[in-house]
Amino acid sequence: MLGLERTSTPLTLDGGLVDQLVPVQPSSRSTLPSLHRRKTLMTQSPPPVAHLPPADVGLQEIVNEHKIHLKRQYERVTEGFGESGSGTLLNTIYTELYIIDEQSEEVHTQHEVRQLETTSQTDTDHAPTIKCHKLFEVLTHLKRPIRVVLMNGIAGIGKTFLVQKFIVDWSERLENQDINIVILLSFRELNLVKDERYSLLELLHVFYPTLQKVTTEKLTLCKLLFIFDGLDESRLSLEFTNRKIVSDITQKSSVSELVTNLIEGNLLPSALIWITTRPAAANQIPPTCVDRVTEVRGFTGAQKEEYFRMRFSEKELSRVISHIKKSKNFNVMCKIPVFCWITATIIEYILNTDQRSELPKTLTDMYSYFLLVQTKRNKHKYQKEHETSPQELTDADREVLLKLGKLAFENLKTRNIIFYQEDLEECGLDVTEASLYSGFFTEIFKRECVIFQKPVYSFVHLSIQEFLAAVYTFHCYTNRKTEVLKEVLGEEYNETSLDIFLSKVMEKSLQSKNGTLDLFVRFLHGLTLESSQRLLVGLLSQTEKNPEVIQKIINNLKEMRRSQISPDRSINIFHCLTEMNDSSLFQEIQEFLKSETKLSEIHCSALAYMLQMSEEVLDELDLQKFNTSDQGRHRLIPAVSNCRKALLKACHLSETHCEVVASALKSDPSHLVELDMTGNKLHGSGLNFLSAGLSSPDCRLETLRLESCWLSDISSLVSALNSNPSHLKHLNLSHNNNLENSGVKKLCVFLENPHCLLETLRLQRCSLSEISCDHLLPALQSNPSHLRHLDLSWNNLQDSGVKQLCVYLKTSDCRLETLRLWGCKLSETSCDYLFKALQSNSHLRELDLTKNNLQESHVKQLSELVDSPHHTLEVLKWKDP
Ligand SMILES: Nc1ncnc2c1ncn2[C@@H]1O[C@H](COP(=O)(O)OP(=O)(O)OP(=O)(O)O)[C@@H](O)[C@H]1O
Questions:
Q1: According to CATH, what is the number of the domain 768-881?
Q2: Would you identify the CATH topology of the domain 52-104+112-296?
Q3: I want to staple 707 with a disulfide (CB 3.0 to 4.6 A). Which of 370, 394, 648, 678 is the partner?
């Protein structure tokens, strides 16, 4: 029993000032295991106190007893599909969830997996977030009380865990102490009494016998919170229009009527109501009854890590996290806590059985497992089947999964990700049962209502759609449904061997520019393995065990080459090999790198992937150092995202390659600090792509070399540098003959930017005249203190150009150390200008006037400066080599 202590804090109850009884925190609390809890304790301000009737010690004791009861019931959880009350302490595994304070109307309009591959991951959008303990806090902008909260969330996202956490924190007096009594009524349990007639008071006593001692009067005085968990599971018919009004808590009624009257506020109008539901069932509650809609979005990146941190020892943790990070798809799926649990369970099992064994690498295995576990959870939830192992899919499961597969497949071709009733019907899905299906398969199939008041359906993740589409395609292949396969491969498709079938699908996928079928073909290859077929037995018929066919498929992939495909698409060939558990490439690459044998294209793709995924950031990637073809070099480009220095000189980069480089500059974190694209034709869209990368706030590039890149209009480059000015230190645009004075004029906009920190500027052979110096002078003068090295060699600057430069040299903040003016058609006059300027400049160390046809007499004074111990000039070059 918890101790009670008097406090003098006056609190109001019905307008009167009363003394309150504040519970003393139990001393055992400091020994609780959860890190999270300890944090809560430390950061917490004293909780608001319950408004109990004055000095009602009797009621307080009942409440205390109720708290103890709830704590006992909910502090332990069995994960995945277990019941509460046994298993692990919730606080030792509970990880904070990301909840937004509004419901999203959008369905996924972009392929999450692909989105991740092209952009840096934004875990959170700009929606306001909310903590579960603040659900009933008044909305400041609306200033109205919150009575009914509807909490949406897809299956496995953590709604029930959240409710349990709320209850445990309340029962331990950590949060929400302004609420006197919390009553959890899950729809799953209400279903059991749906045909009974009770008064609300009796219903409470059925579920909470400890509350029997509370009288009607006292109950109406208490601040109550009713939590209705899992509306999607409800078998009650909740009628909000033609229902009987019940306002007396002793009045007998049907259970459905009690629930609707509570929600509507006819019964206990001041009681708070919290309803959780999968999106499929949310529309059972009229929006007019709801004061706040929230949505549980699962884990953010940091929360994901925290989840695994709580489960694994420090030693194992880094292995687990890096394993998950290596696969972008695992990363996406791990936003859903139940997928984290599946991943953790599989990994834990492996680590406990054999530390040395490999963690599951293939996505196909992970997704197969996910499908099985979710199917089992649904069965447990809706059909109360406890005893089947996850591997046992019934005929009914198989039928529905294949229909969903058909829907997935049909719509994958058109990239359609939202479906209407007609689409479902076309695939044989019974729409009258849609809500059951969507409930049953919300894990993979989510139903939402949008503006049109028409149900819209979509898969929870597009990756799930692709997986089911692959399962269905495989099913059609093994069952010789040629007509269906023709839809993917075109009319000319004929029954053929598995290896030829797969290489045709692969070809098809390579043709797609944006990777529409990438994941689909990966799954398809993964499903050829006996191990996958074993996992999905019941859903997939097994193909003949024929190692030769598997080997043929592997060989086909290795030999696949097409020109004009993006290196990202090529990496997908390698991913398909990984899905087939083929690791021969890794060994071959290692051998080849040692022996300097020429790397084939597929080796380069594999190598690019290895480098890309390596935990070590590569210091330098120099494409010229690889013994391979141009195509092979192109396939290495994706590795740019994981290196500091990328040397991509003269290798015929196309705009697609520039796009890949740009995405490396945009990635978060972006490692690239030095980029050399010299000798590639970058004019036009290539430069635009690159500029988009440079303008990203994540770009950290310090050195950019674009010599001989056929550049003329550099507007996009300048505006990119200008929007992100403070990183670039060295810029080399030499040998771009078409740059001309107009190019320099544009560049000056960047040089003038007060945040520009450029130290080196090289503009050799850019067809410049003295007009460029006119442009440069004010720009350099306005921001004089950063530039250290300026190279304007082989431009027609003449003496008048040098005259302008000398004005800059004389600027007091000028810190220029090297000035190179080879072949600028200078005469003795320039030497005079320079001598005068350098008399007042104490920074220049090196002056290079080679190839200007100068005589010893012309440079005499400048040479004296070199000899003078009082001047910084150390090197003067003027003799032609
Ligand atoms: N906050 C969390 N911290 C740690 N694990 C969590 C958390 N939330 C959920 N999980 C894991 O995910 C599993 C599913 O969570 P939960 O049952 O709460 O989901 P749900 O949204 O209620 O799903 P459903 O709609 O299917 O009932 C849990 O059994 C647990 O393994």
A1: 3.80.10.10
A2: Rossmann fold (3.40.50)
A3: 678
